[in-house]
Design a protein that fits this description.
46% of the residues are buried. β4, α6 and β5 form a beta-alpha-beta unit. The longest helix has 24 residues, at 377-400. The strands form three sheets. A seven-stranded mixed sheet has the order 1-9-8-5-4-2-3, sandwiched between helices. A four-stranded antiparallel sheet has the order 10-12-14-13. The chain has a three-stranded antiparallel sheet with strand order 7-6-11, with no helix packed on it. It is 40% helix and 14% strand. It has helices spanning 15-27, 40-52, 63-73, 91-98, 116-123, 142-152, 203-214, 229-238, 251-261, 264-282, 313-325, 357-363, 377-400, and strands spanning 56-60, 81-85, 102-106, 127-133, 156-159, 167-168, 171-172, 179-183, 196-200, 288-289, 297-298, 303-308, 331-332, 366-370. The chain folds into two domains: 15-262, Aspartate Aminotransferase, domain 2 (3-Layer(aba) Sandwich); 264-400, Alpha-Beta Complex (Aspartate Aminotransferase, domain 1). By secondary structure, it is of the alpha/beta class. The mean pLDDT is 96. The chain binds pyridoxal-5'-phosphate (PLP). Pyridoxal-5'-phosphate binds at residues 62-64, 88-89, 91-92, 133, 135, 159, 161-162, 183, 185, 196.
Amino acid sequence: MHNSPNVYDAEPIPEQARIEIDRMLNSGDLFRYTAPENAPVTLLEQEFAALMGSRYALAVSSCSAALFLSLKALDLPRDARVLIPSFTFAAVPSSVVHADCVPVLCEVGENYRIDIKDFEARLDDNISAVIISHMRGHTSDMDAIMSLCNTRDIPVIEDAAHSLGTTWSGKKIGTIGRIGCFSFQSYKMVNAGEGGILITDDADLVAQAVIMSGAYEHNWAKHMTGRDSALEASFARWQNQLPLYNLRMGNLSAAIIRPQLGELARRVRDGRSNHDYVATRLNSSAWLQVPEKLSREERAPDSIQFNLVGVSDEETRAFAAAASERGVKVQVFGLSADNARAFWNWKFLPGGTPDLPATRAMLKRACDTRLPARLTRQELDIIADALIAAAEDVMQPARAYGT
Ligand SMILES: *Cc1c(COP(=O)(O)O)cnc(C)c1O
């Protein structure tokens, strides 16, 4: 059965990008600060800020760079403790280490969302900042998180790398914390190969991030759109005071991203309806369970996560092999070798691997399958059929003998 769809190819890049790139190849104008105004990167920042309803945007080389600059802009002391969820991509604790801070991990539940009780308990533990990673676009209880952090005056950075288009109580994910960071890596909702952007309403934070991203000398002036005395004062204040890390985005990336922003609403709508269709089908199997989203959350998925229920490690591995045999690749976050989303593989964590039994148990049964928005109903059925049949392949024979 190998008529299964390719879930790794992205959508074609809109034709407008080709025209713009051709223009740039002729002029050689690839650096964001060469043009006196309206460079593609600058236009992207303006368009993205408008799309998100935020005051400022800064485009950079990756979401990891955006997270790093966010931490640096918060001006945390060396070895400051930054609370992050234990279910995230290795890039998140890496950005904390890169910023000379210490990641502190909290538990994540079977529904892939932060365990608020554990979060609250660790928040009192000398935490200077929080990164909420909306892993695979799953939104934790942002009302509880913001209220706990606001009470203690702890800044929240949202890692919305994989959440572009998601909302919480109607608010866009990435606009709830002090800073929101997004990725344009190829497996995310908008694909430039690599790239990232941060958004904030805070002039002093963005001024620092702009300078540190590599706006040397007075290039910060190209980030001013119209009069903004708060921003101008912050640039004046930070001039020559900060190191330049050179994490800028180039014009080619911006040209690839800009025409995709208009596709976002459709991708979100199709991704959500595809996900919900496959979720309903998978939930019909006794062995597969797709956790419910939280009620205030409207998701923008391009993949599906589900848990295997009442099975052993061995059966979980056999299920992934059977699905692969049927043409659908499933990764089990906690069982595939050297997985970058399993916290015990982050050997670079200062202080060694923390003890997080709930997250560990979840990761060993949590399966992940890509489900890009462009798939047709027929292709979704091929994927759902294969996953349901793979569960039956592995689990039914074992159960038939009364084990
Ligand atoms: C992809 C991703 C990142 C890293 O993004 P890059 O742009 O590749 O640096 C961080 N966090 C999450 C949740 C991601 O999905």
